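Q: How would the structure tokens look for this protein?
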Amino acid sequence: MPLNTKNIFHINMPVVTFDYNDFLNIFKNKISKEELIEKLPMIGADVDKVEDNEISIEFFPNRPDLTSVEGIARASRAFFEFEMGLKNYNIKKSDIEMNVDSSVKNVRPFVVTALVKNITMTDELIKSLMDLQEKLHLGIGRDRKKVAIGVHDFEAVKPPFAYKAVDPDSVEFVPLNKSNSMTLSEILKRHEKGIAYAHILEGFDKHPLIVDANNNVLSYPPIINGTLTEVTPFTTNLFIDVTGTDKKAINYVLNIITTALAERGGEIYSTVIKDDNKTYVTPDFNPLEMKLSLDYINRILGTKMSEKDVIFSLKKMGYDAIEIGLKIVVKIPAWRADILHDIDIIEDVAVGYGYDKFETDFPKALTFGRTLPNHVIYENFRKIMIGLGFNEVTTFTISNESDEFIKMGLDIFTRVEIDNPIGEDYSCLRISLIPSLLKILNENKHHPLPQQIFELGIVVNKDFKNQNNLAFVKIDAKAGFTECKSFVDAIMRDSGMIYEIEDDSHPAFVKGRCASIIFKNKKIGLFGELNPKTITNFELEHPIITFEMNIDLPNQ
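A: Here is the predicted structure in token form.
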């Protein structure tokens, strides 16, 4: 029976779809569609598809500034040498203030804001802004937990604004897509967005709220905006708020959104944030600086570039750079959230220089490989599983909290999280192989039963160390604990391991039909029948038996 695993292995990169003519309007230079499609991949993108004038481009998630057509146009102007160097945006002053109340510090402590005037709300802009907002929510925003964005019609409200925490039963307003006024508690229970994101505010007695001078509600972050400030095709002035738990992240997001709107002809106005005794102005486009030596760049890249070559390459990537003494001083755009280390800049030097200019070479030394210490043990387990009639699969070590914890009935505990994830499905490293195997069963629901698969792969344990586990699942109308135990007996017998079993309990398993595997007085795994709730959580319908065991054991 063939198993379909392709949908499990494919990670969807951020895809930006735009109209070629709309791109030209922002790009403000001439370039043929054919040349654009040919050259864009050189920046670090893949052309997903082209249908007439509609172009879809895939970018890696480490470049959130390129997740809109506006960002792509800005990067293209520099890379194609029409407008090289750091793009300068004019920021005008406004008298708008946002007062941050201390009550919000324990809930969602940070907020930044901006005003963008004289926007023409075309269909293309509305679509691009919505797509950008969603991609930033999923990427930098960690599905709104870390960052949430509010975009408002400025004319409907009156500054100064206040950001505070309130009792969820004490305030009510009309949320987007509703016609009736609701309290914050009611929104979490009855509104689609409230139900989807209520978990972010779980456990907090007070919830964050943004109101204007007349106490009108603009936003209930990170849940929903009010209908009062709903953006329409006739909106010309946009007020933007970005709230979150990470100050750097919210500033990057505000910079990305406001510069995207400026690329459409919007005029950016600064706002003043008053937070306790501190006052600061946002957005802030002052570039960060890094210093690199030419020798270090050439050593890393294996090149013989001059200072002039390096500076030219950096300007093609949208930086400003000058030579001061023995160092090259690089000014980093305020919307480049991906620049964390010297190596990130050196990578852009390579992209700007052109990978086609790098010379190929043979290895300078010959080495001889050998099997890893545990390879023989792993191969033996594979042979045992294949002999028992299981098909081997390989899945990603990247997973998400929902699959690893919530669907398995576990409380979310400390785990290895991923910065700037590709999407909400890939936000942490897995702690178990079983959820990955259940997802493959889900992809194969159209195939006849029984289905039985196994994986030998890496998980991250509670000590944040890589650990090799062996796991299997079998789905069948007659699958039960007795059959599962017989598989475990065969695996342990054929591997030469003397073991014991003990009654165990786990929220993902049927009570009384779960057992742990004891080897040398230590629990190394568990097996049994999955709970019907676990089965339905993964959108499956038939009984499932499963087993998982740590196989990184000395002196087996």
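The mean pLDDT is 92.

The chain is about 30% helix and 30% strand.

Upvote if useful.
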